[in-house]
């Protein structure tokens, strides 16, 4: 089987499936995806062909491509991904952009709660080397993945802490920004079957997906500096609800930012005191 035949095994031309095929072949052959077309007549080795066919079966069974390849690009980083982590999504880059555009001190203190692969914390640290960035997670194997990703990208100044939300932090730690992509999907959401291969604890929250969001906002003011911010990713239909929670707990300058698809995706608020 040559590269052209392998690319054509799944999906129509210009489809997302074809793009996945290209990414998978890039991973297996170590040929840049842009060069695959130029080398379309190159034959795969027997080992490459077997690996490719086995990988396609895993994807067809619902496993994310990132779990098959073991990595996922995010922002300017290539991140290790395992079944202990969520796969970072492009829309989460909106959260990174939002924090980068805030008016913050040059030595701002940032904490990323529930860091997963470290995508948010490491992206911020890579863009702002003088920021003091901390990343937390409740699950030790997940935090180990984030630490590995930090080491791979020479972001050794990022700190890591194990624990559930604010329990990972010391009471006297104060931050200019608390950022998080917490679980926000309702257990009965129709999209859950499509996410069955990813860790449920990182996806689902009580109270129609709002429980962890409310906890982070409610208790965050105890860990914020004066004029500090909380910025949260949430579901496409939760913008108004998240704004109401910020208002309930006394936050100001509340606004919602849309993602690349035009959906509400990030809401932030500033603690006034």
Quick take:
This protein has 273 residues and is an alpha/beta fold. The protein has eleven helices and nine strands. The mean pLDDT is 92.
Describe this structure in words.
The chain folds into two domains: about 60 residues; about 200 residues, Vaccinia Virus protein VP39 (Rossmann fold), CATH 3.40.50. Helices cover about 35% and strands about 20% of the residues. By secondary structure, the protein is of the alpha/beta class. The radius of gyration is 20 Å and the shape is elongated. Strand 3, helix 7 and strand 4 form a beta-alpha-beta unit. The protein has eleven helices and nine strands. Strands 5-4-3-6-7-9-8 form a seven-stranded mixed sheet, with helices on both faces. The protein has a two-stranded antiparallel sheet with strand order 1-2. The termini are far apart. Helix 2 packs antiparallel against helix 4 and helix 6 runs parallel beside helix 7.
Number of strands: 9
CATH class of the largest domain: Alpha Beta
Q: Helix fraction?
A: 25-40%
Structural class: alpha/beta
Can you tell me the CATH topology of the largest domain? Rossmann fold
What's the arrangement of secondary structure elements?
Elements: H1 3-7, H2 16-29, H3 33-36, H4 46-60, H5 65-69, E1 71-74, E2 77-80, H6 93-100, E3 109-113, H7 119-127, E4 132-137, H8 140-152, E5 159-162, E6 175-180, H9 206-209, H10 211-220, E7 224-233, H11 239-248, E8 252-258, E9 264-270
Parallel strand pairs: 3-4, 3-6, 4-5, 6-7
Antiparallel strand pairs: 1-2, 7-9, 8-9
Helix pairs in contact: 2-4, 6-7
């Amino acid at each position: 089987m040559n590269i052209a035949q392998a690319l054509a095994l799944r999906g129509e031309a210009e489809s997302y499936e074809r793009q996945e095929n290209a990414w998978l072949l890039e991973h297996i052959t170590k040929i840049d995806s842009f060069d695959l077309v130029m080398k379309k007549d190159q034959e795969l080795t027997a080992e490459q062909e077997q690996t490719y066919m086995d990988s396609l079966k895993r994807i067809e069974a619902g496993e994310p491509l990132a779990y098959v390849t073991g990595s996922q690009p995010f922002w300017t980083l290539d991140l290790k991904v395992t079944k202990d982590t969520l796969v970072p999504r492009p829309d989460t880059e909106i959260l990174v952009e939002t924090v980068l555009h805030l008016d913050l001190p040059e030595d701002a203190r940032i904490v990323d709660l529930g860091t997963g692969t470290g995508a948010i914390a490491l992206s911020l640290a890579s863009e702002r080397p003088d920021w003091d960035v901390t990343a937390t997670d409740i699950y030790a194997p997940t935090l180990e993945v984030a630490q590995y990703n930090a080491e791979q990208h020479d972001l050794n100044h990022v700190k890591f802490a194990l624990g559930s939300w604010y329990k990972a932090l010391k009471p006297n730690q104060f931050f200019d920004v608390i950022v998080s992509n917490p679980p926000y999907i309702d257990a009965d959401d129709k999209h859950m079957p499509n996410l069955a291969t990813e860790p449920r604890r990182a996806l689902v929250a009580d109270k129609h997906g709002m429980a962890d969001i409310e906890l982070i906002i409610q208790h965050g003011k105890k860990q914020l500096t004066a004029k500090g911010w909380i910025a949260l990713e949430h579901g496409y239909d939760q913008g108004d609800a998240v704004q109401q929670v910020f208002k309930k707990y006394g936050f100001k300058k509340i606004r919602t930012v849309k993602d690349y698809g035009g959906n509400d995706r990030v809401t932030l608020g500033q603690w006034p005191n």
